[in-house]
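Section handout 9: paired folding examples.
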Amino acid sequence: MYCAVRYYSRSGNTKLIADEIARSLDIKAVSVDDPASKINKPVDVLFIGGALYAYGIDQHLKSYLKEIDAKNVKKAAVFSTSWISKHAIEVIKEELRQKGIQVADEVFYVRGKATDAQIREAHQFAKKML
């Protein structure tokens, strides 16, 4: 099974979760503002995450979601960290669904900075999505 982990993080909280998901799958998490983040070949599961900022998700993540080629993503699994709310999850899921990408019902969310226990839960989330 081929998976990819993509994220956008300003504070490092979402990166922390993305890195743990990637580590559990023995792959590398890549920020969406990195040119290497483009999905050029089909993935079975795309783990994609970001946070809610003042008025929505960051423009980097918005642009990335719009550019994803749906034919290269069999299923997406969404994760988020935020000090504000879980709303980023719904925004990300909706963008993916509009492209015709199947999105897992189960999501992973951490309010604020992840604890060690939540980081372990991110590992379990990744395994469940396979």
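Moving on to protein 2 of 2.
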Amino acid sequence: MRTDDGDRLATHDQLKYLYAESQDQVDTRLLENFDWDSDLNLEDLSDYRKKLEKLEDADSVSKLDRELLIDIGVLRRDRRSSNRNYKMTEGGLLFFGKFMSIMDRFPRFQLDYTRYAKDGDTDWIDRVSAGDMNYPEMNICSFYNVVLPRIASNINDKYTQDEDLTRGSYVADLRSAAKEALVNCLMHAYYDGTIAIQIEDRPSYWEFTNPGDMRVSRESFLRGQKSEVRNSEIATLFRRIGISEKKASGGPRILRAASRNHLMEPEIEIDSTNKITKIRIWKIDIRTKIDDEMVLDPTEKFIIDYAIQKSKFSFSQMFKDMNDKFGSNSTVRKRFNHLLDEKLLVSEGNGKSTVYKLEKTSEQEQVDRIMRLKNMEKNL
């Protein structure tokens, strides 16, 4: 393996990862000596059947567990053998398996969700962890069913709607983005990896961590150009009950939630050395972030909110829209100049043609560029 200071012999885990990545469909490999009736959690299968029946004709969904497992691809015929027996796929075991049965094949299998009261806290207030006393038989299916409602419930609709600032889509957009990130984390994880799937739920953001680096670039993921799923069986099982889509739609939904609600830009960290992917989705907007870092008076808060809503604006138009709520022109100008001095706002042009906008990081500029490209592609 090429490192910064030379070449090193690959470890067993590195070779195993390279072999797995050389295959398009990792989790469709067939297992030896695993039986569906003793190694799968049939309660989870029953719950899955009910969801399937809501989407498909109930009469078309097999009433026999074995036939249903064959229909959804959890059991597949071993075409390498002359006896053509049906065997369980690795993805089927991960999705429906009993915890100890999963551990027999994936000894490092671990799914964790932790919720914190404050961003900086180290002690959690709620936790879902596969295999502990509260969740002794947890698999991907049950983890998703338990964790998604917790994620969705931890969104505070703190934005009020008024004539200037409309936030009607905030909760729905954030729920959609969090759901996409959760499914993406479970579908794309490398389950032979050395770390757990970890989801941190904090007041200001969610962070989704999974073993395995992303198979597409950050920009390709956010634009939805293409999808290269690591675990196609898990993806199919989610798709059959309407939880995921075949096309690469997760990234654009995450990006759209941030863009429509003027939130902090999503952060994607791909650690190719340690084979880890992290996606952070912010629940707060730029003004909230500024409020956390410095104290703003009501006039400054209005100006920042105005700048969030308007891509560019003139001082005269902004002052007119204030409707004399914040004092005289000179009073407002003083607070406005303070924001310029703090480099929260930047100016463009000279004289009467001067316009202002929020100062943006390179990451925020990149998000704006990706959104423009997405809109161009949609129009084309």
